[in-house]
Write a structure and sequence with these properties.
Layout lengths: L12 H14 L13 H18 L9 H8 L8 H8 L4 H16 L3 H5 L26 H12 L7 H4 L4 H17 L6 H13 L8 H7 L4 H18 L3
Helix pairs in contact: 1-5, 2-9, 4-5, 7-12, 11-12
């Protein structure tokens, strides 16, 4: 497919992660650029949301897609329970050190030679990513955050637990991280995405979210601590908002 006319190249996910790593290593404490205070669950889904945006834009990051294979099969540093709880346990609950361990792996991966990248087994079929030239100009239109949320709602339907496909363990902070990552990807790709701030103001005016807060804790409390209900409430609010304010 052809690139979108006038579209600007996206920032690859690992470029962004290396920016975050540099910021975290240069500052003695948070908040850090792009991510605020370090939280491995939020960050894991921030990465997922950024990656989902890249997927919807149709870009190809080339050899960077080998990172998961390398971390899991060569470094053996992606335990079955996920890197987030494993690294957090290793560092006795220190989110900053746990996150830096993950980001140090990103830096190590990015320093691999072309020969080392080519030696990583690719288990997903098609051309080996090490020989693919990255294509970072979007081939699909930028999809606003509300459109993305409506797409997630349609994908999960009414089946309980299906939101796991997008965020893994079902927690409101992970859903918030997914949205934050998605929105940052749009912003760095040049999208203004002005609808989502209006949606957030509407949540305050119509749905009782206190000023200065996001939806996570108020919705979790109103749903008696049920994270899946709270996330589904957010998605239903997106539907209602769009019906009242068609884009």
């Amino acid at each position: 497919m052809s690139p979108q006319s006038g579209a600007k190249p996206v920032v690859p996910l690992h470029d962004l992660l290396l920016r975050i790593r540099e910021d975290m290593r240069n500052r003695t404490s948070g908040p850090y650029r792009y991510i605020g205070m370090p939280d491995v669950d939020h960050m894991a889904c921030f990465i997922g949301g950024y990656g989902w945006c890249l997927h919807l834009l149709g870009v190809d990051e080339g050899a960077d897609v080998l990172f998961g294979e390398w971390l899991h099969f060569i470094k053996k540093a992606w335990p079955g329970q996920g890197w987030e709880p494993a690294y957090l346990e290793e560092f006795h609950g220190d989110h900053r050190r746990a996150l830096l361990k993950y980001l140090d792996f990103v830096a190590e991966f990015r320093a691999l030679s072309p020969e080392a990248l080519a030696s990583i087994q690719w288990r997903h079929g098609g051309e080996h990513p090490s020989v693919r030239v990255p294509s970072l100009v979007p081939v699909h239109p930028l999809k606003p955050t509300l459109d993305m949320l409506l797409g997630v709602r349609q994908e999960i339907g009414d089946r309980q637990g299906r939101i796991f496909l997008f965020i893994g363990p079902i927690e409101v902070k992970r859903m918030a991280g997914f949205i934050d990552g998605y929105r940052l990807c749009l912003s760095l790709a040049g999208a203004r995405d002005e609808e989502y701030p209006r949606f957030e103001r509407w949540l305050q005016e119509a749905k009782g979210v206190p000023a200065g807060q996001d939806w996570t804790l108020p919705f979790l409390e109103s749903c008696e601590g049920d994270a899946e209900r709270a996330i589904r409430r957010l998605l239903e609010c997106a539907v209602e908002f769009r019906s009242l304010h068609p884009s």
